[in-house]
Amino acid sequence: MKVITTVEQLKQELAPLRLSGKSIGLVPTMGALHEGHISLVTRARRENDVVVVSDFVNPTQFNNPTDLATYPHTEEADRLKLEEAKADIMFLPSVEEMYPEPDTRVFNLGTVAEVMEGEKRPGHFNGVAQVVSKLFAMVEPTRAYFGEKDFQQIAVIRSMVELEGFKLEIVACPIVREADGLAKSSRNVRLTPDQRAIAPIIYRVLRASLEYAKSHSVAETTQWVADRINDFPFMDVEYYQIVNGDTLLPIESWEETNHIVGCVTAYCGDVRLIDNIAYCKPQNA
User: Fold this and answer.
1) Averaged over 63-80, what is the pLDDT?
2) Sign of the dihedral through C-alpha 102, 97, 1, 35
3) Which residues are catalytic?
């Protein structure tokens, strides 16, 4: 595996491979890699001739300076994991390399970027669109891989791809969980032992809500989920919304669509965790 730190070197490495007809899979990450990331690399390896993994903590998508300052940096451990996963290129740029000049672009991403995380973290998704669009332009991938834990982010990236006219396939991959159900996240390492023991309640409540929803309204289910999670020590639900899985707008009735997703953000102590669950899938899924 090659570790590349400059855009110019990355382009020089990929250009002949692309000209020879090789397919390129891109896995954008912010490092601190765990099994969820590696599952994306594994799938990219299976479906492409060349696998590029970016490892870059993007400052423009953090609206909380403390969150940026405490985000883990584990580049050497990341490199070892990517070598084991048989990635071809680890792209490890500096902030100056990615942003030689301030990126002032503002993307009109539509309502998918305005609700939930978009409302709670102003500017976050514009920062995501900035860095991902840069990576797409640099790598020109055939496919790019993202985890469904960040369900809203995938919708935002699809919107950006359409807006910018990128020609690639966005591949959404299933959430990878710990044995106790907690969605794998780079932030989990910040949980204290007591908090770590409580955090899996998020997914347990989401799972229980599938049965509860069968005999209760959307509004009742929404309130029930938030109340049950908040019953536990350390837990504080920032929001729980049940939405149309395509538009991400809240629904009022289970009959509105056949693609319904419940999205939650909850603090466990001062660690912000996200998760989601599907109440039903599109008929053609």
Assistant:
1) 91
2) negative
3) 37
